[in-house]
């Protein structure tokens, strides 16, 4: 089967129209020696050979299928109900591009609408867009929105050093050349001072204050007071939140946030070596016209039936051009659908159960590790399912040892924070059994004696 | 189409009232845009402006447009109520739909009602 839709006759007609005889004539301006370069490709493989070769590459990966994992740092190992994949792969949904025409896309549009509704519920906010690429880009879009909100008159963005280092790196990339000042983005800063440290950085030129919840080290702070301080200075307040944690914690909406963003990967999306993930973005209704991205709304058609359409599109870049908030309006349609299916399958009770399991297992693990000689919890702040541990040996050394026992250890915080050399960030989810946690503790103890 | 004779008009479809200093979007413009769902005034009281500067950003169900200052001068008032009721730009463009008031004298770059009517009818062809 050929994927080229034009018949030879149609091609001849087109060539005649532009006044040439053969397709090759179109390329005559390209020097002959560059036209068909030798690509030096290996001989073609049969499907069977290709499948075997690819399986070989895949087999070289170490995954959570065969290893116990205590690695988190922004991406979390949760159980993914089997039904999600089956729904994603239905022909009506499984497409690389989102068909937005309401006449033919009611299913896709409704799925996005349901996703948006679920995101506003878990964040405690009023409006959600149709999603961004990942948590990092969602944070960057929050900055774009704040910048647009103040029409460029406020140029300072305060970001806590306890926001995921990758989010901060993405933010630096996004804001290049915008004339913004990022304040607080300092890996050498005081990391356990809590919101008070950030509060001191806010002034009358501050457009946005960004914190993470729970923060990168797993710590939970109530940001209500910080949100008030941001508002008192006229600034907007943004929380980058872990969605699973929101099942049991006070929502950022209740704290007075103007924008709540985050990484949606924990909601039924595989870790997959970095992506595709899902950036969720929610805000208050009053900021809806400055929100980046797509937005699906519910309405009625000309027969009075419930229908879904892209709404307020005039704020988007294809109409508003350079005056729009962002030049990205792609969403992660399939991943947004995965998270909507995930939350629907779990329901409010199931979602809460997942969060409670994470919480209790992580606290059991933290207690056991804290009892070990040489290991200490770094912060005495409440935490959710992730915590930072000061170790008696370099983290890389400990992790190499753990790997020999089939365990992926925690994240080496010294990579991003020089002051946290020999500090490990350990994540525990519902996937970790008590036996696995006990094994981790046992091996950690063993290592400290070596 | 309504074109009040006491007002002056710009080529970018704004009206200006020389007696009150108010400016806004013409009936012709609101009709072209259709249902207006959002308006953001880009000026503040006290701003010293020149003619042709962005005054407001307007979004309708099908388009986004910028409104420009018809004359130069100093902004003396801003219609804050528009943000909550952008639809008055459609229903009452010359009344409740005023956007800002400008203290300024030089209306030489503007058309009178007759010239503006001719200008609009020419564009309809």
How far apart the termini of chain B lie comes to 15 Å
Oligomer: heterodimer
Q: Which range best describes the helical content of chain A: under 10%, 10-25%, 25-40%, 40-55%, 55-70% or over 70%?
A: 25-40%
Kindly state the number of beta strands of chain A. Answer: 15
Question: How would the global form of chain B be characterised?
Answer: globular
| pLDDT < 50 stretches of chain A | none
The number of helices of chain B is 3
Shape of chain A: globular
Strand content of chain B: 25-35%
Structural class of chain A: alpha/beta
Number of helices of chain A: 13
Question: Which value, in Å, is the CA radius of gyration of chain B?
Answer: 13 Å
List the strand order in the largest sheet of chain B: 1-2-3-9-8-5
**Helix vs. strand class of chain B:** alpha+beta
Plain-language structure description:
The complex is a heterodimer of chains A (450) and B (125). Chain A has 450 residues and is of the alpha/beta class. Chain A has 13 helices and 15 strands. Chain A has helices at 8-18, 32-35, 47-59, 82-88, 106-123, 135-149, 165-174, 195-199, 224-232, 317-320, 333-371, 395-404, 434-449; strands spanning 68-69, 127-128, 156-159, 181-183, 206-213, 236-241, 259-263, 279-283, 296-300, 306-310, 376-377, 386-390, 407-408, 411-412, 423-427. Chain A is globular and about 85 Å long. Chain B has a single domain, classed as OB fold (Dihydrolipoamide Acetyltransferase, E2P) (Beta Barrel). In chain B, the strands form two sheets. A six-stranded antiparallel β-sheet of chain B has the order 1-2-3-9-8-5. A three-stranded antiparallel β-sheet of chain B has the order 4-6-7, with no helix packed on it. The model of chain B has no long low-confidence stretch (mean pLDDT 93). Chain B contains three helices and nine strands. Chain B is α+β, with helices and mostly antiparallel strands and 125 residues long. Chains A and B meet through loops of A and strand 4 and strand 6 of B.
């Amino acid at each position: 089967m050929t994927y080229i839709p034009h018949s030879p006759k149609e091609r001849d007609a087109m060539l005649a129209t532009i006044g040439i005889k053969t397709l090759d004539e179109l390329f005559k301006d390209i020097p002959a020696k560059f036209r068909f370069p030798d690509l030096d490709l290996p001989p073609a493989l049969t499907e069977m050979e290709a499948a075997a070769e690819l399986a070989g590459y895949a087999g070289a990966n170490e995954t959570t299928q065969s290893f116990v994992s205590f690695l988190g740092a922004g991406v979390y190992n949760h159980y993914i109900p089997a039904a999600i994949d089956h729904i994603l792969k239905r022909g009506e949904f499984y497409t690389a591009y989102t068909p937005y025409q309401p006449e033919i896309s009611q299913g896709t549009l409704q799925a996005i609408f349901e996703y948006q509704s679920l995101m506003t519920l878990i964040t405690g906010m009023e409006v959600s867009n149709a999603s961004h690429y990942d948590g990092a880009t969602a944070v960057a879009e929050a900055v774009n929105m704040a910048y647009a909100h103040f029409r460029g008159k406020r140029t300072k963005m305060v970001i806590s050093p306890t926001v995921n280092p990758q989010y901060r790196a993405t933010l630096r990339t996004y804001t290049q050349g915008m004339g913004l000042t990022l304040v607080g983005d300092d890996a050498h800063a005081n990391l356990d001072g809590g919101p008070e440290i950030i509060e001191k950085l806010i002034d009358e030129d501050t457009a946005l204050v960004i914190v993470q919840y729970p923060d990168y080290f797993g710590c939970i702070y109530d940001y209500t007071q910080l949100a008030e301080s941001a508002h008192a200075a006229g600034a907007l307040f943004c929380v980058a939140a872990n969605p699973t944690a929101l099942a049991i914690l006070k929502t950022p909406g209740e704290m007075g946030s103007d924008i709540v963003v985050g990484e949606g990967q924990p909601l039924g999306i595989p870790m997959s070596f970095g992506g595709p993930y899902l950036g969720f973005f929610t805000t208050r209704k009053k900021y809806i016209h400055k929100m980046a991205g797509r937005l699906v709304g519910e309405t009625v058609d000309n027969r009075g039936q419930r229908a879904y359409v892209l709404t307020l599109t005039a704020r988007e870049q294809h109409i508003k051009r350079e005056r729009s908030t962002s030049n990205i309006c792609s969403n992660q349609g399939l991943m947004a659908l995965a998270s909507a299916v995930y939350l629907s399958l779990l329901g409010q009770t199931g979602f809460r159960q997942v969060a409670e399991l994470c919480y209790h297992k992580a606290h059991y693990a933290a207690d056991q590790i804290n009892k070990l000689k040489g290991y200490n919890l770094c912060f005495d702040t409440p935490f959710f399912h992730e915590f930072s541990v000061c170790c008696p040996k370099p983290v890389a050394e400990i992790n190499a040892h753990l790997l020999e026992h089939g365990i992926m250890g925690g994240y080496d915080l010294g990579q991003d924070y020089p002051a946290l050399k020999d500090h490990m960030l350990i994540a525990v989810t519902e996937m970790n059994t008590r036996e696995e946690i006990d094994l981790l503790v046992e091996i950690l103890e063993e290592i400290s004696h070596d | 189409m309504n074109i009040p004779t006491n007002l002056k008009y710009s080529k970018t479809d704004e009206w200006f009232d020389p007696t009150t200093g108010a400016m806004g979007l013409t009936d012709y413009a609101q009709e072209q845009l259709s249902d207006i769902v959002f308006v953001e005034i880009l000026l503040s009281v006290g701003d010293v402006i020149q003619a042709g500067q962005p005054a407001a950003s307007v979004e309708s169900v099908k388009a986004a447009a910028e409104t420009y200052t018809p004359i130069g001068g100093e902004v003396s008032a801003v219609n804050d109520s528009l943000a909550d009721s952008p639809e008055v730009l459609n229903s009452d463009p010359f009344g409740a739909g005023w956007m800002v008031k400008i203290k300024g004298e030089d209306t030489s770059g503007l058309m009178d009602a007759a010239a503006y009517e001719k200008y609009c009818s020419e564009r309809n062809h």
